[in-house]
Amino acid sequence: MCGIAGLAGGDAVRHQATIAAMGRYQHYRGPDGTMHTASADGWAVLAMNTLLIVDPQAMPGPYLDRTTGVLLVFNGEIYNWRQQAAAWGIEIGERESDTHFLLRAWAKIGPSCLDGLDGMFALAVYDPRIAKLFLARDRLGEKPLYWRLDGGRLAFASEVTTLAGYGPAPLVLRPEVVAIETPTGADTPFQGIQLLAPATLLTFDVTSGSIDQMTWWHLEDRSPFDGTYTEALAKYSTILAEQIPLRTPACDFALLLSGGLDSAVLAYLMRPPVCVTVRYRGQDRLDESSTAAVIARDIKAELVVVEPDHVDFTTALPHVMRALDYPMGNASTFSEHMAYRKIADLGLRVVVGGLGPDEFLMGYVRQALVLFGVDAVLEAGLEAYRPLAAKLMHAAGEDLGPAEEVTRLVLRGPDPDGRIRDLVADAMVRAGGDLARGLTLADLATAWRPLVMTSDKLASAYALERRSPYLARDLVEFSYRLPVDYKITDPAQGKRILRDAAKVIGLPEEVWGSRDKLGFASPVPSWLNGDLAAWTDAQINTALTDAPSAFRPLLEGGLKPGSRFDRTRMQALMAAVWLSDQSVKAAA
């Protein structure tokens, strides 16, 4: 996992010291070297934190094409670079990598090369031939990239706090943070700093100061699959067998193995030498470690069990918030953090996880509630989700419509401006009448950002490269195209086609036959009302002493005890620790 930062503008070369400092600020993203380079015309300075995975002896970035002067900084991995190099006639040396391929591809064909890339990336390219800076992110936003304008200059970085250090950035409470715990779209809590949206290309013309943004990939443009289920299963299994192993690193790596379906399939297809699972004492319902042990033993991997407690949470939370840049809503945040810390302690550099199937193959209970209705879901044995189903129960006899149902299920707080409702309604329209596709697009517009961002940021804080093989382009696009009954027919068993593929692969029935989703959930919300109640109140009250006025209602709401499933207190605590961080105060 690398980091990138830089500045473009007529006097950029005069700010090399500033860009060097920005690079040093996020040095943990690339422990193999932090360097910066100015373009030949002096109008751009790019910095890169390098984490060497493909070739430990390679030179760290930035990367310069000496023939054209094109300058590149890059964070991520391109998995099909050898095939594309051959297809585009790009020569690659023996000790060169995907980054050298990308540099030459851009110099040769420009931004149009993006559509041919299959991987995870955030990149910046300065082309002195046309005096333009380009910023781009991968299709699903696996790698973060923030930017801001300042007096005719454009600055960018992998971390929002890196950019906040470039100049003052007053804190802003976005309405959607109260609604779903996370900013949406391009917004951040720092005024003037934006997140480049997934699958977006930004072009900054240094001579005119103009900016243009375009979306270079649209998932909803994929045509529906019209074959039989047997044909779909065969094609899906083939894509799995081709794409998942392609993302297996050449070095030793660890797999986040929850014991559930998604990570288990990765275990059998990638054969990791190390599997890491997280469990909590006294939390039997959250414990899938026995299933993880069966899988690890079957693939002959070492199983490392991490067993944190409430004391670990109190010491870890400041580190978590510093890594995240700002609060994000993800129930697995603490578990992931503890797993990444252990993996780094083992001396590994790559970690693999199972993001993706739930969103694209109807793996969430909230999706089943919309597709099948409350009664069918509860009668299928998912009684534990009655508190979630209750969001729809009080509307008995009232025809809400799918968009309103989805909105009620994803909301965790008030949505007075209707921003979340608008996002969900737009997703349903873009899906063209297919409810399952609409549910996928709604997830990508609301709940997806904190999942993919926490995975990258928490891993990067420990200099780990995080890979999510299910986000392979072919898998994502084919999954999206499938009819709803190829994805789910039983309210308690989503991801039908993945389950059937798992049977073919040979996974134990206790994995593909499971009727409940646990993942890396944690008992943190119950701790905050129990063992950590007084500590939580103290953190929130301390933050209230000098918190910006807009954030006070959010913090005060966290002083009220919540239910087992209420995340209001957790959200307030995360905001309190974040607001108390000195780097956040300095930026604001």
Residues in helices, as a percent range: 40-55%
Mean pLDDT: 92
- Report the major sheet: 6 strands, antiparallel
**Total DSSP helices:** 27
Unreliable residue runs: none
Main sheet strand line-up: 2-3-1-9-8-10
Number of E-state strands: 17
From the N-terminal CA to the C-terminal CA, the straight-line distance is 28 Å
Quaternary: single chain
State Rg.
Answer: 23 Å
- Content of β-strand: 5-15%
* Coarse shape: globular
The helix/strand class is alpha+beta
Folded structure, characterized:
There is one protein chain. The protein has 588 residues and is an alpha+beta fold. The strands form three sheets. The protein has a six-stranded antiparallel β-sheet. A six-stranded antiparallel β-sheet has the order 4-5-6-7-11-12. A hairpin with a 5-residue loop joins β11 (200-205) and β12. α6 (229-246) packs antiparallel against α19, α7 (261-270) runs parallel beside α21 and α16 (419-430) packs antiparallel against α17 (435-446).
